[in-house]
Amino acid sequence: MTAGDRGAGAAAPLEVVDDELGLMRRLLPLEGARILDVGCGDGGFARRLVSEAGAARVVGIDLPETLGPASEGVELLAGKAEALPVADGAFDVVAMMKSLHHVAPDRMDRALLEAARVLRMGGLLYVSEPVARGPFDAIMRIFHDEAEVRSLAQAALTRFTGLERQRRLAFLSPIRFGSFEEFKRRMMHLPTLTAPITADMHAAARAAYRAQSTKTGVFAALREVQVAVFQKP
């Protein structure tokens, strides 16, 4: 699949980005920066910000059950996006990597204001959010429909005035699974699932996967991701 597979009427093909960290390094001054990763999960991306992007210090925030071990230059703290347990003006960059839509809808505005609070003057907020459409999301929707919360996250970003908007862009992120078993292992045991997966959901997801995969069971697609970058004046 290529960017052109998004369909007729697209203004221009979107860039295919294999690794979002590379895009961030083009857009943000990460080297030597103090970075807050809001919704860091087990801290894997936070560690890459130090080891690959040269960040001086990264603090990751997420629910306690998702956090992994800390490492050199990386501190992981239990907390929520709408009540960050860090000081005012402590960070050069705040990153929300596909995490805003996991915040309760009535707290999304507060989460963005919290990000603004902890940025230094001139600091940057980077928010990355996947778009809920395409073949991958069609399968996911069977057992974990995030279309509404992702739309609400985009609406929160559109109305946010707590920082100056620097740019908004979109790219295509490749998704690949070698088999349904790999899809099941990676996507059907996520900590963000909001309800149990029933036998009927499992069967429907398997059928949808097979309909979109090759004869050898490989599923490959491009997923649109939208990015907003803000700056603290």
Tell me about this structure.
Residues 36-127 form the Methyltransferase type domain. InterPro entries: Methyltransf_11, SAM-dependent_MTases_sf. It comes from Frigidibacter albus. It holds the Pfam family Methyltransf_11. β1 (34-38), α2 (44-51) and β2 form a beta-alpha-beta unit. Helices cover 29% and strands 27% of the residues. It has a 7-stranded mixed sheet with strand order 3-2-1-4-5-7-6, with helices on both faces. The protein has helices at 20-27, 44-51, 108-118, 135-140, 147-159, 180-187, 199-212, and strands spanning 34-38, 57-62, 74-78, 91-97, 119-130, 164-177, 219-231. It has 7 helices and 7 strands; from the N terminus they run αβαβββαβααβααβ. It is α/β, with parallel strands linked by helices and 233 residues long.
Under CATH at level 1, the class stands as: Alpha Beta
User: Outline, from the CA principal axes?
Assistant: globular
CATH superfamily membership, which one?
A: Vaccinia Virus protein VP39
CATH topology: Rossmann fold
Low-confidence regions: 1-8
Relative strand content:
25-35%
Largest sheet: 7 strands, mixed
How far apart the termini lie comes to 41 Å
**Whole-number mean pLDDT:** 94
CATH architectural category: 3-Layer(aba) Sandwich
Number of strands: 7
Count of DSSP H/I helices: 7
